[in-house]
């Protein structure tokens, strides 16, 4: 399914009185989903800023970047290592660094430096699909600790170890043959919602 067809963020979970969001994008597919997320946030009158230090040469990902630029979404040239600057400037961070492509390795730059910073911020972190630094099967091994997890398609095995406040799944777009092939049992999506809460806020 094309990344652009995914609504990768549960907008009702972020009050509009807190509109500033930092979207941190990695070089692979999860980073592209982060770009789509930033675009959706901007459409709904949030104020996203993107940090995308290692841009993919993939034409589709370049198109997503261009779309964000044309929507006047600012891009940071560097991520402050002084975490208080991030805490003061933004109300939340969207983690779209590694996701399920964890084999990209948190030990490689720029991912290692990004994760080192994200581990110390105090504002809420929303991770897309798999929290960065987590093993997709085993779960956390020194990765970040997000407050919100948005599983794409279906929760991954590591989601069993997620202890944050809210867990959403965005998988309404999955074709029935895919659901049957992988023996998925998707939740019922209310109304026209593209995401559904698996865990109520705590």
Automatic annotation (TrEMBL):
- GO MF annotation list: NAD(P)HX epimerase activity
All residue ranges annotated as the YjeF N-terminal domain in the record = 1-186
Q: Which PROSITE patterns match?
A: YJEF_N (PS51385)
Q: Name one matching Pfam family.
A: YjeF_N
Task: Fetch the InterPro entries from UniProt.
Answer: YjeF_N_dom, YjeF_N_dom_sf, YJEFN_prot_NAXE-like
What GO terms fall under cellular component here? mitochondrion
Q: Which PANTHER family match?
A: NAD(P)H-HYDRATE EPIMERASE, YJEF N-TERMINAL DOMAIN-CONTAINING PROTEIN 3
Concerning NCBIfam families, the annotation shows: yjeF_nterm
This protein's name: ApoA-I-binding protein 2
User: Which species does the entry assign this protein to?
Assistant: Anhinga rufa (African darter)
């Amino acid at each position: 399914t094309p990344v652009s067809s995914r609504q990768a963020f549960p907008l009702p979970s972020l009050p509009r009185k807190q509109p500033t969001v930092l979207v941190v994008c990695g070089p692979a597919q999860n980073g592209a989903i982060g770009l789509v997320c930033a675009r959706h946030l901007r459409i709904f009158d949030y104020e996203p800023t993107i940090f995308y230090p290692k841009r993919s040469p993939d034409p589709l990902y370049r198109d997503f970047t261009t779309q964000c630029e044309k929507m006047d979404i600012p891009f940071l040239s560097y991520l402050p290592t002084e975490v208080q600057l991030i805490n003061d400037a933004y109300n939340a961070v969207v983690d779209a660094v590694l996701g399920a492509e964890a084999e990209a390795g948190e030990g490689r730059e720029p991912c290692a430096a990004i994760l080192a910073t994200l581990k110390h911020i105090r504002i809420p972190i929303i991770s897309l699909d798999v929290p960065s630094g987590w093993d997709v099967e085993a779960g956390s091994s020194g990765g970040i600790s997000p407050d919100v997890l948005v599983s794409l398609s279906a929760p991954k095995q590591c989601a069993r170890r997620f202890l944050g406040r809210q867990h959403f799944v965005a998988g309404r777009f999955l074709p029935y043959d895919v659901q049957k092939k992988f023996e998925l049992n998707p939740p019922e999506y209310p109304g026209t919602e593209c995401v559904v809460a698996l865990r109520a806020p705590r």
